[in-house]
From TrEMBL:
CDD domains: ACS. The lineage of its organism: Eukaryota, Metazoa, Chordata, Craniata, Vertebrata. Residues 104-507 form the AMP-dependent synthetase/ligase domain. Keywords: ATP-binding, Ligase, Lipid metabolism, Nucleotide-binding. PROSITE patterns: AMP_BINDING (PS00455). This is Acetyl-coenzyme A synthetase. It comes from the Eukaryota. Residues 34-96 form the Acetyl-coenzyme A synthetase N-terminal domain. Its EC number is 6.2.1.1. Residues 562-640 form the AMP-binding enzyme C-terminal domain. It catalyses: propanoate + ATP + CoA = propanoyl-CoA + AMP + diphosphate; acetate + ATP + CoA = acetyl-CoA + AMP + diphosphate. Gene3D superfamilies: 3.30.300.30, N-terminal domain of ligase-like. Monomer. Interacts with TFEB. Interacts with the 'Thr-172' phosphorylated form of PRKAA2. Interacts with CREBBP. SUPFAM superfamilies: Acetyl-CoA synthetase-like.
């Protein structure tokens, strides 16, 4: 185990109590209210979830006499399953649109402020406009023969039609499979084939920053590849005229050639033209599938995570309300892409279920300038802001100056998701962005969990920078030793969950066996997250990174995240990634990739300082053996560092495996050419 040095303890002991001014009208105003609600959610789930369900429309109620949540997590006792509200019938689209328009009178309320890649492209969409648009799209899908249970692939940038097509699927009971629009043709093809999608929705083209991407071309290549494999199921391809209608307005000439196959392709606007804007929803069983979302798996083949209607609806709605302490006058902005689970749960479903007004942002943080995020916050008076540590670290590089030009006084709550946040980034987010006023909700969750599972609540939970704090309602975390013993009190090991909450995944699409093997085999009776975790003396949970990012140096377990955070606390370091490299005596040793802040030089003195810093922060056991200058790091398109690739570079292994999820393959070459031969 890591022996924390003095600084390490000090950092972890600092506690930030919730701000008083949030308490007056907070949904969960203090810690004792959190504890009481938590207790109720575990001890009286019928009552707890029954109350949440009362806020929604049900075409029929659950079968009487069944427990609200039925499950088996123990592979040794039969198939793993989770059933929530068995017998109930509802429709998620009806609940997030019709209910808001008809019952709550939110028709004229803005659902989304769409903000384009370029600052002069924008559009406000109200709840009633969205409802009509969704109904027309749903009718078009029905006309194309899409029925309940059929799969629809959606390969779109962050445009209103993305939300619209997801909801149209939900309305008619089709299962959407959104594929992030930065994925390659191969990845799209693989996902289309796995789910046997009958329709693909895409767009002509899109600007990401100043780069124009011919999305339809990529979609065509994907369909071509599906055909080559002899099993294309796609009958129709609906193409949103995004480049041509929205972003190309000021340009002299059309820069895109949009390949077209009249037998398959149809323009979105032409297909919807004149189609009725009312559409009877399909009343679905609580456990009917809602969507598939692919997440990477250790074997290289992505897993189609399946979520179902009722549990996902209630869980995303409730977490959104409590974790962001959502109120009617909030303007909420989550900067994630809807191609990832964060966007599904906290741009599409959770906010709409609450009738919220959100920013739907197509752009990137540094285009057309490095103050874009702050400009958008000022423009819409954003009060709840949710982003990723990688974005924070990127923006930190430019210092305070870009923020000073904008009024960020509307901000109330900040959130992070995606990876452990290093204390340096946490403090910058807290002090520079939140001006010390705004609590940071560090939300730990996964594609598989559907919604937040470990998270603070803004007015109730005292914060410790870097800790995702405590379980959300209905969630029972546990820490497991390698031997499968549940550890009590202060402990470090595998993060597992003892029982399901309504939003947990139900299976891997078409592969129940893989579902059971991946998540339930290691510790029968428990859902295994794959993350390492430490519980401190106050019962707070600290994610230490994926278990496969754990290192064993001379018999001591170290987490890469911990070393990375020690490194990024150095003034010259913008980002750090640490991997293990085999070592003759220690078993494994640390190989560190360092991205420096602008205009800093990579010198021997700096290397020595960094080694000293890690030694001081964590202990001599964590002293890096190798420190390499890394102008860029290999990242997935969602911003996660691909440590697998870095491990191969550290070991000088040229076989890098599947690189299709890599955002910029060029960085790999550069890193290979500059790798360290000898220990630092
Ligand atoms: C929502 C999302 C899941 C993995 C997860 C963990 C890491 C996410 C985190 C976090 C520490 C947090 N992760 N949130 N680690 N603190 N607040 O990111 O889903 O893309 O499936 O990734 O991300 O390692 O297991 P997904």
């Amino acid at each position: 185990m890591v022996v924390p040095g003095p600084d390490h303890i000090e950092e972890r002991e600092r506690v930030y109590p919730p701000p008083e001014e949030l308490k007056a009208d907070a949904h969960v105003p203090d810690f004792s209210s959190y504890l009481a609600l938590y207790k109720k959610s575990i001890e009286e789930p019928e009552e707890f979830w029954g109350n949440v369900a009362d806020e929604f429309y049900w075409d029929s109620r659950p079968t009487a006499g069944h427990p609200i949540l039925q499950y088996n997590f123990d592979v040794t006792k039969g198939n793993v399953f989770v059933k929530f509200m068995e017998g109930a019938k509802t429709n998620l689209c009806y609940n997030v649109l019709d209910r808001n328009v008809l019952e709550r009178n939110f028709g004229d309320r803005v659902a989304y402020h769409w903000e384009g890649n370029s600052a002069d492209h924008q559009q406000d969409i109200t709840y009633s406009q969205l409802l009509k648009h969704v109904c027309r799209c749903a009718n078009v899908l029905r006309l194309m023969g899409v029925k309940k249970g059929d799969r629809v692939a959606i390969y779109l940038p962050m445009v209103p039609e993305l939300v619209c097509s997801m909801l149209a699927c939900a309305r008619i009971g089709a299962v959407h499979s959104v594929v992030f629009a930065g994925f390659s043709a191969d990845s799209l093809c693989e996902r289309i084939l796995d789910a046997q999608c009958s329709v693909l929705v895409t767009a002509d083209g899109v600007y990401r920053g100043d780069k124009l991407i011919n999305l339809k071309q990529i979609a065509n290549e994907a369909l071509e590849r599906c055909r080559e494999k002899g099993s294309s199921t796609v009958q129709k391809c609906v193409v949103v005229r995004h480049y041509a209608l929205r972003t190309n307005t000021g340009e002299a000439s059309n820069k895109l050639q949009t390949p077209w196959d009249a037998a398959v392709d149809v323009w979105w606007d032409e297909a919807l033209d004149g189609v009725c804007d009312e559409c009877e929803p399909e009343w679905l069983e609580a456990e009917d599938p809602l969507f598939i979302l692919y997440t990477s798996g250790s074997t290289g083949k992505p897993k189609g995570v399946v979520h179902t209607v009722a549990g996902y609806m209630l869980y995303t709605a409730l977490t959104f309300k409590y974790v962001f302490d959502y109120h009617f006058d909030d303007v909420y902005w989550c900067t994630a892409d809807i191609g990832w689970i964060t966007g599904h749960s906290y741009i599409t479903y959770g906010p709409l279920a609450n009738g919220a007004t959100s920013v739907l942002f197509e752009g990137i943080p540094v285009y057309p300038h490095v103050g874009r995020f702050w400009e958008v916050i000022e423009k819409y008076r954003v009060s709840k802001f949710y982003t990723a540590p990688t974005a924070i670290r990127l923006l930190m590089k430019y210092g305070r100056e870009p923020l000073l030009k904008y009024d960020l006084s509307s901000l109330r709550v900040l959130g992070t998701v995606g990876e452990p946040i290093n204390p340096e980034a946490w403090h910058w987010y807290h002090e520079v962005v939140g001006q010390g006023r705004c609590p940071i909700v560090d939300t730990f969750w996964q594609t598989e969990t559907g919604g937040h599972v470990l998270t603070p609540l803004p007015a109730a939970t005292a914060l410790k920078p870097g800790s995702a704090t405590l379980p959300f309602f209905g969630v029972q975390p546990s820490i497991m030793s390698e031997l499968g013993e549940e550890l009590e009190g202060e402990a470090e090991g595998y993060l597992v969950f003892r029982s399901p909450w309504p939003g947990i995944m139900r299976t891997v699409y078409g592969n129940q066996e893989r579902f059971e093997t991946t998540y339930f085999k290691k510790f029968p009776g428990f859902y295994v997250t794959g993350d390492g975790c430490r519980r401190d003396k106050d019962g707070y949970y600290w994610i230490t990174g994926r278990i496969d990012d754990m290192l064993n140096v001379s018999g001591h377990l170290l987490s890469t995240a911990e070393v990375e955070s020690a490194l990024t606390e150095h003034d010259s370091v913008a980002e750090a990634a640490v991997v293990s490299r085999p070592h003759a005596v220690k078993g494994e040793c640390l190989y560190c990739f360092i991205t420096l802040k602008d205009s800093t030089e990579f010198t021997h003195t700096l290397k020595d300082e960094l080694k000293k810093q890690v030694r001081e922060k964590i202990g001599p056991i964590a002293t890096p053996d190798f420190i390499q200058n890394a102008p860029g790091l290999p990242k997935t398109r969602s911003g996660k560092i691909m440590r697998r690739v870095l491990r191969q570079i550290a070991r000088n292994e040229k076989d890098l495996g599947d690189l299709s999820t890599l955002a910029d393959p060029k960085v790999v070459e550069v890193l290979f050419s500059q790798r360290c031969e000898a220990a630092a």
